[in-house]
Design brief:
Elements (H helix, E strand, L loop, with lengths): L4 H7 L6 E3 L10 E4 L10 E6 H5 L10 E5 L16 E4 L8 H27 L4 H8 L7 E5 L5 E4 L11 H7 L3 H4 L1 H6 L11 E3 L9 E8 L2 E9 L7 H21 L10 H7 L6 H10 L8 E8 L6 H14 L4 E5 L2 E7 L5 H10 L10 E5 L9 H13 L8 E3 L2 E5 H12 L12 H13 L3 H10 L4 H8 L3 H15 L13 H12 L6
Parallel strand pairs: 2-3, 3-4, 4-5, 14-16
Antiparallel strand pairs: 1-5, 6-7, 6-10, 8-9, 9-10, 11-13, 11-14, 12-13, 15-16
Protein name: Helix-turn-helix domain-containing protein
Organism: Gordonibacter massiliensis
């Protein structure tokens, strides 16, 4: 393995050397020798030299070779010396090694670097898991490393992590599987003029405003981007040697990442569904054949979900990460890109929609967790030719996720189901944003007036009773009232309006009209 002066600087830290050269992460030295009468200028050589010999150097050496000067103080910083060669100065002192002793020490450093490099190359040659490769790499770094693939999905961590580590990026990343650069995209982008195309290590200095810095290295192969890895300075400050080792390791990883990165969920297995989602017609026989090849049947009940990350992402890699995270939870579903969001088509037999809706209604959220996804769910369908209609329903529900009336949540997902917001769809399609008094049932209006005058909840009670299939037990639970209280309200509703919800047939009550009227009257801002 080649080396450079930055690695020598780190190796000799106990001797307090001073650098007088331009730091560069490239490893361009392949030889170490003690300077002598037979030495010749050579750009890839490091010459170990005493102070007097360095002062008398031939001009030919100024442009060829690097120097480790023993027993000399470095010239003042900023001193302009014509054609001065790259040099590292070790001051005089009792512990100053002889040139021969220094050569032996540096050759030992070189041997250790070669052993580390060989271990990495051997592991890569036998297609070892990336985690194993990363564990080997971590042996040369004081700070821990983290790796994420091109879609910012999986995270590997190696090296010593302090037990008390409480890092806003790394701690949450390790806990959730989210890449740190996804959690701090602005700071990451500020670390380079073109962070996604940067093929050398770059520093995110004080990225989160708490004094902590991150050393980032993209993994590139040609023009393709396969991911990145980074170090966080929790154990030691970053040194120039870290940049050199990071770039060397990054060059090696770039060779294997194209073979180990996880592929995006494929759309090809159900290509006709892609055509239907895009509004193109598909012959029934073609659709049925594609479904059969995928192990689905034409009469399978299915639903469509439209989803994205909770925070909008402009970057295609970040959006792909969201698809990959969801695909991990729903491996039997099919996924289709939809620009800023994505569609998931899933069978009810694999992932019962009723169970998802029950969690949504119960708001089973992860305690203390920030929302990570937004999702809108369609109704159940039994005809795959209607997948575009289902996608439209999912899109409407997705757009209403933040509506307090119909939105909900489960896990770390903000959600909305079309079955809960179908009335909003109906209202828009019928143009009911204007006054809808002509549509309202007069008996329901009487209930709303009683609510306004008495501070009662008759409209809410009637609506809940109808929404829960006229089931008294479920209605009382939904309203958090006793069944006796519900029975009293139902009797008051009948007395005030003539609407007999308990025996609608006997009272000739049009339940659909009453229901729609109550839905309209229950909307915020609706006057009676």
């Amino acid at each position: 393995m080649n080396f450079n002066l930055d690695l020598v600087l780190a190796e000799l830290a106990d001797l307090a050397p001073t650098a007088r050269y331009r730091h560069d992460s490239r490893l361009d030295l392949d030889r170490i020798e003690v300077f002598g009468p037979l030495s010749v200028p050579r750009a890839e050589s490091l010459f170990v030299i005493d102070a007097d010999s360095f002062a008398a150097l031939d001009a030919d050496f100024a442009e060829a070779g690097s120097f480790l000067v023993l027993g000399a103080d470095a010239p003042p910083e900023g001193t302009e010396e014509a054609c001065a060669p790259p040099a590292l100065y070790v001051p005089a002192g009792d512990a100053l090694p002889t040139p021969g002793e220094m050569l032996a020490r540096l050759l030992d450093m070189r041997t250790r670097l070669d052993a580390w490099s060989e271990a990495l190359l051997t592991a890569m040659a036998r297609d070892a898991p990336l985690q194993e490769v990363f564990d080997l790499a971590a042996q040369r770094f004081a700070n821990p490393l983290m790796l994420s693939d091109a879609t910012l999905y999986f995270v590997l961590v190696a090296g010593k992590l302090p037990e008390e580590l409480d890092d806003r990026l790394w701690t949450s990343a390790i806990a959730t599987g989210a890449c740190p650069i996804e959690l701090c995209m602005e700071a990451w982008a500020a670390g380079s003029s073109d962070p996604c195309a940067q093929d050398r290590a770059f520093l995110m200095d004080n990225a989160t405003g708490d004094g902590r810095s991150y050393l980032v290295r993209n993994l590139m192969c040609g023009e393709a981007y396969y991911g990145c890895f980074e170090l966080v300075d929790v154990n030691a400050p970053f040194e120039p040697a870290d940049f050199a080792l990071v770039d060397y390791f990054g060059n090696l990883l770039s060779l294997v990442m194209p073979h180990q990165s996880r592929p995006q969920p494929a759309e090809g297995a159900l290509g006709p569904l892609r055509d239907l989602l895009d509004g193109r017609s598909v012959r029934p026989q073609v659709l049925e054949c594609a479904l059969r090849k995928a192990g689905w049947r034409a009469d399978d009940r299915f639903f469509v979900a439209r989803f994205s990350a909770a925070e909008a992402a402009e970057d295609a890699g970040a959006r792909g990460q969201t698809v990959r995270l969801v695909a991990e939870v729903y491996p039997l579903a099919r996924f289709f890109d939809d620009g800023p969001a994505a569609f998931m088509v899933a069978r009810d037999a694999d992932y019962p929609l009723a169970a998802l809706h029950a969690r949504h209604a119960a708001r089973e959220v992860d305690t203390g967790a920030e929302p990570r996804f937004r999702a809108g769910f369609s109704s159940l369908f039994a005809d795959f030719s209607l997948v575009r209609t289902a996608a439209d329903q999912a899109t409407l529900a997705y757009d209403l996720v933040d509506d307090a009336e119909v939105g909900g949540a489960f896990g770390s997902t903000l959600s909305c189901f079309y079955d809960d917001c179908w009335f909003e769809d109906l209202r828009v399609r019928l143009g009911l944003d204007a006054d809808a008094a002509w549509l309202l049932d007069h008996a329901a209006v009487a209930l709303a007036r009683a609510d306004a005058e008495d501070g009662a909840a008759y409209v809410e009670t009637a609506l809940a009773y109808l929404e829960h299939g006229c089931n008294a037990t479920r209605t009382a639970e939904a309203l958090f009232i006793h069944r006796n209280t519900l029975a009293y309200r139902l009797k008051r509703i009948k007395a005030l309006s003539g609407i007999d919800l308990e025996s609608p047939a006997a009272g000739n009550v049009d339940l659909l009209r009453v229901f729609l009227s109550c839905k309209l009257l229950a909307r915020p801002g609706r006057s009676t």
